[in-house]
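User: I've been going back and forth on whether these two constructs are worth ordering. Before I decide, could you fold them both?

Assistant: Sure. I'll take them in the order you sent them. The first construct and its structure tokens:
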Amino acid sequence: MVQVREQSHVNAAGDIDLERWLQQLPLDLGIPDASRLLAACHMVQESLHVPGQDAGDWAHETNCFLAGLDIVVILAELQVGLDCLMAGMLYRAVREQRLQVDEVAAQFGGEVADLIDGVLRMAAIGDLKTQTDNPVLGQAHGQKDNIRKMLIALVDDVRVALIKLAERTCAIRAVKNDEQRRHEIGQEVFDVYAPLAHRLGIGHLKWELEDLSFRYIYADAYRKIARLLDGKRLERDHFISRVGEELSHVLRNAGLEFEVTGRSKHIYSIWRKMQRKGIGFSQVYDIRAVRILVPLIKDCYATLGLVHGLWRNLPNEFDDYIANPKENVYRSLHTAVIGPEGKTLEIQIRTRQMDDEAELGVCAHWRYKGSDSDNGLASTYEEKIAWLRQVLDWHEETGDAHNVVEQFSFDVAQDRVYVFTPRGDVVNLAQGATPLDFAYHVHTEVGHRCRGAKVNGSIVPLTYLLKSGEQVEVLTSKEGLPKRDWLQPGLGYLRTSRARAKVQHWFKSQVREDNSDAGRHLLEREFKRLALTSVDYRRIAKKVQFNTVEDMFAAVGAGDLSSVHVLNAAQGLVESRPEPQLRLSRAGAGSYRDQVQVRGVGNLLSRMAGCCKPLPGDAITGFITQGRGVSIHRADCARLVKLQESAPERVVEVEWGAAPMDNYEVDVMIEAYDRQGLLRDITGLFANARLNVLTINTQTNKKHHTAVMHLRVEVPDLGALSKLLERINRLKNVMSAVRISQ
């Protein structure tokens, strides 16, 4: 494969003639598509005038324009679509920050930009330490295993993998002068990208990547085998020519349509076979090999019979990969025979379609699967993804010097998230893990002292959901201790049971008195925020099956009992009593059937008082109105106090029914420092919680840059309101969020 700058596309001024370069690509582009690809080339060429950042690897060997042209040459041979070609052209310029992804999206569309973004995420793998395969942070599996799993988790479009393969191929070709860089990129390609090319079935890239990386990692062994091959080249070429003549004569007489070619054995595969079988160079018989291409599968087996009739085949050296394809869906017949002059040789027999699949892998699969009018790829995006998931199921021959052989699938990888430590190690966490989960995974003490986190260099909240490919740095304090809020499920600090257990263990180890005080403080804070001033803790403790209030407080403080569980228990504090009870009937809008019980009164219309808007769990009292049934008030409602003074005979005892089901209106006040997007963030929390916002009234103070919001919302119970207020309080610039009464 020849690089762009080595081809004859240079004009008299010494510049690349893009029109001529495009014409020599193995593409059949219409005028509009050719114009778009040339526009991408010109965009990168113009970006050379913009200062860029060192993207490592081969940035010193060439510029992003020539690199882009080289990448397109490789992708064109893989017969990918136009969007993939443009993304390959633009990628290095974006990586060096000469172009921005949004610029690309504006000029060439979102699909091209998405492909580039995917390759940028994969680029993080280049920073990994693949030289060793030691366990990472106490995990049973090694670093290389994590890298490969991470690569699978990052790729959701096979074209991203193809662009990255093309870019790494260009990179390892270009790195020539710096020995350390040669070794580093050779190790990376050997451990990650050559196996990826193998799994994608792209034979010609796999062989080139293996040979180049082997050359840089094991230079002495490479030179020794290269000299042996070169010394026997004329003899070998003469032998292969004779074999071809004899095979052609036999196949022609049988009336078969065929093509016979010599097949070169690659240096790394020779070395690998020598190591695996413990043999010398002279005993590697398939250095001499030919390939026979025929039209149909039945012709393959007919040809095999003719070959075995011409020369004696070697026992145990026949493989039928047509009936039993390799894990990367490679198909062919392989046999070894004793040919002319008594020399052994390998013969491969396959159809032309199988040969294309062996060379182009997944790309050829799409082409033969069925083409569409635009780019000859598979007819649906889902087919591409299904194929990617199939071929990325690493099973063997991973290029690992220690032969790590562990099967895993794309679907399993999707249940995990793979992130970097600041040193470049990969950590494997459950999907949905937070920076705090990461901290506890690193070390228990790191988790206990965690006070913040950076993701990709930017400060994020401890509730941030980590994504594969991100680098996480934990910020700690010397005297930091765990916080009880971390154990509240609704706040989203911890998602893994392992981290939660470590926090719970810490609090259990503390003095009971401290836990009791902390639990009391936490519950009082929750009830105060919910505007509940008369709470019977003894009845709540009994409801949650604790003998004393102190036991309940201690359990909350130790993390064994969540405050949300206590709030939910408050919804059914009053048990049914043997005295007469009648449920209020629902007589129209505003009545609450089966939700409030009244003692000693017949069926009456009921409605929730608009002044205090009680919720299930609030202590409540009824007041019989004139013509509008029973008005249900919170027991501490200021208006109810006045009504009791004026007409005490109309006050009745009421209680919540066994299973309130409706949503209830409640008023919330939020005080915050004003900022752009504040209202959007607040309403987004309501939307995520699937709660309705009935009204919003915002008052701003421009002098002090503050805002006060009054919202009327619908919530099902106290627990839901508590979670909502806590999340609002955690928003940037929010000073307080509380429930209020009119």
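The second construct, handled the same way:
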Amino acid sequence: MLTKQYGDTECVSRLNMSVRQGRIYGFLGPNGAGKSTTLKMLLGLVRPTNGSIEIFGKKLTPRNRLSILRDIGSLIESPSYYGHLTARENLKIYQTILGVPENNIDEVLRIVRLDRQGRKKTSAYSLGMKQRLGLASALLSFPKLLILDEPTNGLDPAGIQEMRELIRSLPEQYGMTVIVSSHLLSEIDQMADDIGIIAAGRMKYQGELSRLHELDKNKSLEEIFLDLTGKDVSL
């Protein structure tokens, strides 16, 4: 169970998250619920006040953090790039740092449907293209686990649909496990196999998404979410 406290404020409180291999885990909650803090703890970017994290059967510690992170790809917050460089040149920097084969660049650009824009400077990219390039950089090592924090933020409806389709394809085609956070219930409903709902730093529900629908068949998913969190949800 994870707890993260800043001063007298508990951002995450006794949180227990269990993610099944080869599935998409939707991490859902209102803005400020503790989603980003939790994901940063999973990546070793924030140290929990109490509790421990186990990934791939190994306890995450400062000593083995880097070895575990080699099998994790992540997109946290909005990606930033060198605008005067092309997408390929930006990815080349990541590829060199990660020490993965150079032909991975072409493969991930194809996966995110940027293979025809790979030689275009990223300063000319739309927000949706930049988000897809962020996903490409997270995929460069073809990780076992992919962690995405609000990957559809700021995208128009077409961009949201495209990102959703890309994420949905990853477990089936590449065997990846995906954790994707969002405050958009409609997106998680169309994307995830399993779901965790967090509010005020506490896990309110965790399990198969289909079972959430069955909690009260007389209520919509939005009404169930409201009952669990006490807050409205973006649709």
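Notes on the second construct follow. The chain has nine helices and ten strands. Residues 10 and 111 are 39 Å apart (CA to CA).
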